[in-house]
Design goal:
The structure is a single chain. Strand 1 and strand 2 form a beta hairpin. The chain is an alpha+beta fold and 340 residues long. The strands form two sheets. A five-stranded antiparallel β-sheet has the order 1-2-3-4-5. It is built from ten helices and seven strands. The longest helix has 31 residues. Among the domains are: 51 residues; 76 residues, no CATH class; 108 residues, no CATH class.
């Protein structure tokens, strides 16, 4: 560094210009070194940033798939890999492959009946029906309780496996078909099966929860959502959508967790106390109704789902277990006490 100062001093002297003081030279060279260092660091940082987020700036304008075209695994490959790592996670893959269930979610379903006896287009017939959130205060099967415009979805039994939206007409006493059919699928690459990288939107797609979401249409829901595993207030998933009665406890796990001790769950205290605290995730009022798992005030999802994560994920926990004091059997004069 000293040699650089001397060189600049000699060059200035030979050219006849006034020599710069050594202090000024030090400041000039120090500033030059700082600028060079920042430039070098910026080059490496930009290259690293470009490599890490390659391709993600185009995900919001996928005209073909829309929000379902989000390549979530580009940024979350570890979660994609985890989806195939255990029975609880592979179960979500089965649900993602169930187009009846994904259609049920997108329709804002609260109940399903595989042999509903409803009047459809003026004719009473037994057909699979999904009842939307419009029926939350009605008695299903008693059309005297239905309101004008309540939306239900009737399964097309002719073979195309779609669900048609129909609206209740009070004056006509029947469901009037709208011609709008749907069969929601997460099989984005049309491979015939929903894979781990495609299943993310089952739990994070705003369209499946009747929420506007952000510009990416991705939201954060929770295990005890009304239409997933239920909660103390609602169980709006239907085990019959998933094939057999063994799913009854799965779709109502939140209800079981909230039941007083002695009946179902030793985790009741953990779940209920967690449910009294807000998480950082907005509730968003799915399909216009505050979620049953919302925390105090209704603005945010509660922390109740932490109970689920405690057993069903790889989240670590630091435990300090206090062992009970053993009874001093060798002391004949020890006072009597209960073992339990």
């Amino acid at each position: 560094m000293k040699a650089a100062y001397v060189l600049i001093y000699i060059l200035q002297t030979e050219r006849g210009s006034s020599p710069i003081s050594e202090l000024s030279l030090m400041r000039i060279l120090d500033a030059a070194l700082i600028v060079s260092g920042v430039a070098i660091l910026a080059i490496y940082a930009v290259l690293s940033l470009s490599a890490t987020f390659a391709g993600v700036h185009t995900i919001e304008v996928n005209a073909t798939a829309g929000p379902r075209g989000l390549p979530c695994a580009q940024c979350h490959p570890y979660i994609r890999d985890e989806l195939g790592a255990g029975p609880a996670l592979t179960a979500h893959l089965r649900a993602a492959n169930n187009t009846n269930y994904t259609t049920y979610l997108a329709a804002g379903g609260i109940a399903y009946n595989s042999t509903a006896n409803e009047s459809y287009n003026g004719a009473v017939q037994l057909r699979p029906v999904v009842y939307s959130v419009d029926f939350r205060d009605d008695t299903l099967g008693d059309n005297a309780t239905y309101d004008e415009g309540d939306a239900a979805y009737f399964y097309n039994t002719t073979g195309n496996r779609t669900w048609e939206k129909a609206l209740w007409s009070v004056t006509g006493g029947t469901f009037s078909p709208t011609g709008v059919t749907s069969r929601e699928s997460l099989d984005l690459d049309s491979s015939g099966t929903v894979e781990a990288g495609e299943a993310c939107l089952l739990c994070h797609g705003a369209e499946f929860f009747g929420i506007d979401g952000t510009h990416t249409k991705v939201v954060v829901r929770a295990c005890d959502d009304d239409r997933c595993h239920g909660n103390a207030n609602r169980t709006w998933n239907d085990y019959r959508l998933h094939g057999n009665e063994s799913y009854l406890t799965v779709v109502s796990a939140g209800k079981h967790l909230s039941t007083p001790p002695g009946n179902y769950s030793v985790h009741e205290t953990f779940y209920n106390r967690s449910s009294q605290n807000n998480s950082s995730y907005a509730d968003g009022a799915p399909f216009g109704v505050t979620g049953g798992n919302a925390g105090p005030g209704g603005g945010y999802i509660s922390q109740g789902h932490w109970t689920c994560l405690g057993c069903h994920t790889g989240v670590g926990a630091a435990l300090n277990i206090t062992q009970p004091t053993p009874f001093p059997h060798s002391n004949a004069s020890a006072s009597r006490q209960r073992y339990l």
